[in-house]
Amino acid sequence: MSIQVVKGSKELGNKIRTRRNSLKLSIEEAAAKAGVGSKTWSRYEAGESIRRDKVLGICKVLNWSAFPGSSDEPTAFDIDIYKKDEAWPSALAECLGEAAAVSFVVGSGELLYYLDEDLEELSHKPKGTHVGELDFAWTKGMLPQQFLMNYDYNFLYYMRNVLNGFRRQAANGKMFVAHTVLEELVLYLCMEESSGFMEEFYSDSNEFEEDEDASSWDSWAFDLFDDMDVYTYLYSNKYLTEEDSYHFSHWTENQFYMDR
Question: What is the pTM of this model?
Answer without folding.
Answer: 0.74
